[in-house]
Amino acid sequence: MSDLVKTDLRERGEYFKQCYIDNRNEKLEYQNEYNHDNKEKHKEYNRERHAKNKDHIRKQRQEYYEKNKEKILKRGREYYHKNKEKCFSHHYVKQALLSGELKKLPCILCGVLNVEAHHPDYSKPLDVVWLCPTHHRRVHSGAVSLEGNVHG
Ligand SMILES: [Zn+2]
Ligand SMILES: [Zn+2]
């Protein structure tokens, strides 16, 4: 494990807090998705009962939560885990580039010099593949596969 990965835990916490704020749009998206999941139920509920009855809405939310607790908690954990690793990974890459431990390479698919760090595995923050923005997007959308192109 490199020294970078052993970064002070407090520093990691601070960094994550900042990164979490930076990612609030993603968080909103996640919430929208969640609301969308429940929209139909709310609609039905509102039609049948008094739309502005807050107590009932609260009760219904509580019931939904109780019924889907496992699912909700699992999604929350996955979301947190995914983003935490993503934040740290980008942080490490930035630090490693500054310290010289990591060097940018041309896009492995087309050789363009303007590249971004792609992580095939976020649990290995310094294990990156260099891709131009176009190929980076394509890899994430699934249009391009890195298989056979990744070395090491
Ligand atoms: Zn490329
Ligand atoms: Zn990527």
What are the secondary-structure elements, in order, as H or E?
Answer: HHHEEH
The main sheet comes to: 2 strands, antiparallel
The backbone outline, from C-alpha atoms, is elongated
Number of domains: 2
Judged by helices, strands and strand pairing, the structural class is mainly alpha
Rg from alpha-carbon coordinates: 21 Å
Provide the spatial order of strands within the biggest beta sheet: 1-2
Mean pLDDT: 79
Can you offer a commentary on this structure?
This protein has helices at 9-22, 24-48, 54-99, 133-141; strands at 116-118, 129-131. The protein has 152 residues and is mainly alpha-helical. It folds into 2 domains: 3-102, no CATH class; 104-152, no CATH class. The chain starts with 8 loop residues before the first helix and ends in an 11-residue tail after the last helix. The structure holds zinc ion (2 copies). Residues 107, 109-110, 112, 131-132, 134-135 line the site of one zinc ion.
Core attributes:
152 residues; mainly alpha; 2 domains; two-stranded antiparallel sheet; 2 strands; elongated; binds zinc ion
In short:
The chain is mainly alpha-helical and 152 residues long.
What order do the helices and strands come in, and which of them pair?
Elements: H1 9-22, H2 24-48, H3 54-99, E1 116-118, E2 129-131, H4 133-141
Antiparallel strand pairs: 1-2
Helix pairs in contact: 1-3
The structure holds zinc ion (ZN) (2 copies).
